[in-house]
UniProtKB/TrEMBL annotation:
Keywords: Signal. CDD domains: Cu-Zn_Superoxide_Dismutase (cd00305). Belongs to the Cu-Zn superoxide dismutase family. It comes from Sphingomonas telluris. This is Superoxide dismutase family protein. SUPFAM superfamilies: Cu,Zn superoxide dismutase-like. Residues 38-171 form the Superoxide dismutase copper/zinc binding domain.
């Protein structure tokens, strides 16, 4: 009886979490015409939020990737996703001496076959307010979106790294 009581007290403060390698969400990645070109799986980790992207039909080359502040992907321009997710009020780009947006995810390389497979970590971020840690919450009241841009992010120009048009989007 005592053993059960101690166990119950020990579990009372635990937060349920997904089993390792089980996504919190799997969402479609769409192109400007609204067609699904792949998926984005969202994982809650001790170190942040991990996004795993599997897509086809993208132009070959380097493409800037960012988290945007609003969970809307209305084509063809995806402006409904708002600006970059920037809960710490920093500048843009990992090479910016003033710091970078939490939503700056760098560049993704797409092969000549148009396929993209990538894993991205958003360090310190939490999926929700009851998630791991005390970092910024990605999925707040208006959600968030992953956006892939037409061009390469220069990693320093504020506010968007000169990465061009938004060509793919996923509501997280």
């Amino acid at each position: 009886m005592l053993r059960i009581s101690v166990l119950a007290l020990g579990l009372a403060g635990c937060v349920p979490m997904a089993a390792p390698d089980v996504p919190v969400a799997t969402v479609p990645l769409v192109n400007a015409s609204g067609a699904s070109i792949g998926t984005v799986r969202v994982f809650a980790e001790n170190t942040g939020v991990t996004l795993r992207i599997d897509a086809t039909g993208l132009p070959a080359g380097m493409h800037g990737a960012h988290l945007h502040a609003v969970g809307k992907c209305e084509g063809p321009k995806f402006t409904s996703a708002g600006g970059h997710w920037n809960p710490t009020s920093k500048q843009h780009g990992h090479q910016n001496p003033a710091g970078y947006h939490t939503g700056d995810l760098g560049n993704l390389g797409v092969g000549a076959d148009g396929k993209l497979t990538a894993g991205l970590l958003v360090p310190g971020a939490r999926v929700s307010s009851d998630g791991f840690g005390d970092g910024p919450v990605l999925l707040d009241a208006d959600g968030a979106a992953l956006v892939i841009h037409a061009g390469q992010d220069d990693e320093k120009t504020d506010p968007s790294g000169n990465s061009g048009d938004r060509i793919a989007c996923a509501v997280l």
